[in-house]
Amino acid sequence: MHKDLDTLIITPEEMGRIDRAAAASGLSGYGLMERAGQAVAAAALRRFPGALRFAVLCGPGNNGGDGYVAARALQEAGAAVAVHALGDPGSLKGDAATAFKAFDGTVAPLAAYGPRPGDVVIDALFGAGLSRDLPEEAVRIIEAVRDSVLPVLAVDLPSGIDGRTGAVRGDAFAAAATVTFMCRKPGHLLLPGRTLCGEVEVFDIGIPARILAGHAGHMRVNTPAVWRIALPVETGATHKYVRGHLAVFSGPATATGAARLSASAGLRAGAGLVTVLSPPEALAANAAHLTAVMLKPVGGPDDLAVLLDDERLKTFVLGPGFGDFGKARTYVREIAGRGRRLVLDADGISAFRDEPDALFRLFAGGEPRLVLTPHDGEFARLFPDLAEDAGLSKIERAQKAAARSHAAVILKGADTVIAAPDGRALVNANAPPWLATAGSGDVLAGIAGAHLAQGMPAFEAAASAVWRHGEAGRAAGEGMTAEDLVGALRGFDRTG
């Protein structure tokens, strides 16, 4: 597969257009199905060498056709195979009908499948195009397989997962592994689908890269390949102001820790200078814990205005532990009015819950200067209509939010999505589950601020911050704290 397509995410609708374009270009649809089914059979034999029998469950469409090819290949390899069909396989059309006719064996009804010890189930019932609840007959088989604790190899996507949203439509197989074709689909990466796919293998069945690129959207897996070109260039002339000056607003004396986490992460992530902007009453608390991070008193908008007269101070983080919503809105207006860049997190987001459009107007037009870092609850405060729309995937919610706010949006979670106002979207896949700990989001905000301060565009700064945050979590290990996360931050590999 062309290396630029390794990270591509294709919706089921886009995949349908790609299949039609491939056929129009002269490629054999059945040839593609043959390669897909052979890949499934090879994966089954490689992953489950001790299987006593492969139970191939075939659906009423092309996913079922892949299953019939796989069953034939397994049979030719000498494996014991039992094939069960949902619906009448004699009513299959096109390539799936050809695959069924090429299978020389018995096909029993799906309802007749009885799980046996030693079975490996090959799920070829429904692929990524599923957009409705599973029929009851399929649900009963899923329950039987689950009760029997049998391993499942899914074809394209475990049956029951919506390929566009990752939602479970009634019930779904929990696969040990999934074999998909050409590119990942959103359902492989978005929760809860991600947890049910097992290890995902992406197999190139021979559709030219030009066809995929011509019909794909702007969704990718978040990896350095996507944003490495935007990393700041380091030369012998680099000095601390070239690397950027980041300022992080502190909360009151009883809530200073979050800002210090952000500031420490920003310094560790590469900002040349980092300053905590502290209310006067919190100066002593902050000074007792800061060394390389600088400290400035900011008691109100007049103090901030004086700081903003220094043109070298261009990037801010506001929100971690901040507390005062009214002052937050005032500071954001001042920062936006001076053309500065801002990471708005936590309390900074909540401060605009009653007037989100006022926030969006402040940063409208020009190159995006705002990075928003909401979790689901904070997202609902700024974008209540999008949060309530059950028909949208997490990717689609983030894309619409980014377009509305003219910001790079980091919609956090185990399946964090990063979206740009122009429609680009990335799904992050490197974050370990133990990143869900107090202060982790404050660290992420500081990393994003550091990347902005070094001159990266908002979307690339956000995406690289999320990826780096995940890598630090992996390095810190299970049981880590937010302080450990800061210490585990490493530099970028700029050679790839």
From TrEMBL:
GO MF term list: ADP-dependent NAD(P)H-hydrate dehydratase activity; ATP binding; metal ion binding; NAD(P)HX epimerase activity
Lineage top rank: taxon: Bacteria
Keyword NADP: yes
InterPro entries from the UniProt entry: CARKD, Nnr, Ribokinase-like, YjeF_N_dom, YjeF_N_dom_sf
Protein name: Bifunctional NAD(P)H-hydrate repair enzyme
Cofactor note: Binds 1 potassium ion per subunit.
Segments forming domain YjeF N-terminal: 15-213
Domain YjeF C-terminal: 223-496
Subunit-level organization: Homotetramer.
Family: In the C-terminal section; belongs to the NnrD/CARKD family.
Residues reported to bind AMP: 412-416, 441
Cited function: Catalyzes the epimerization of the S- and R-forms of NAD(P)HX, a damaged form of NAD(P)H that is a result of enzymatic or heat-dependent hydration. This is a prerequisite for the S-specific NAD(P)H-hydrate dehydratase to allow the repair of both epimers of NAD(P)HX.
EC number: 4.2.1.136, 5.1.99.6
Organism encoding this protein: Shinella fusca
Keywords linked to the UniProt accession: ATP-binding, Isomerase, Lyase, Metal-binding, Multifunctional enzyme, NAD, NADP, Nucleotide-binding, Potassium
GO biological processes: metabolite repair; nicotinamide nucleotide metabolic process
Requisite cofactors: Mg(2+); K(+)
Residues at which K(+) binds: 63, 123, 159
One Pfam family, short name: YjeF_N
HAMAP family xref list: NADHX_dehydratase, NADHX_epimerase
Catalysed reaction equations from the record: (6S)-NADHX + ADP = AMP + phosphate + NADH + H(+); (6R)-NADPHX = (6S)-NADPHX; (6S)-NADPHX + ADP = AMP + phosphate + NADPH + H(+); (6R)-NADHX = (6S)-NADHX
Binding residues for (6S)-NADPHX: 62-66, 127-133, 156, 258, 321, 375, 442
SUPFAM superfamilies listed in its UniProt record: Ribokinase-like, YjeF N-terminal domain-like
Family annotation (PANTHER family): ATP-DEPENDENT (S)-NAD(P)H-HYDRATE DEHYDRATASE, ATP-DEPENDENT (S)-NAD(P)H-HYDRATE DEHYDRATASE FAMILY MEMBER
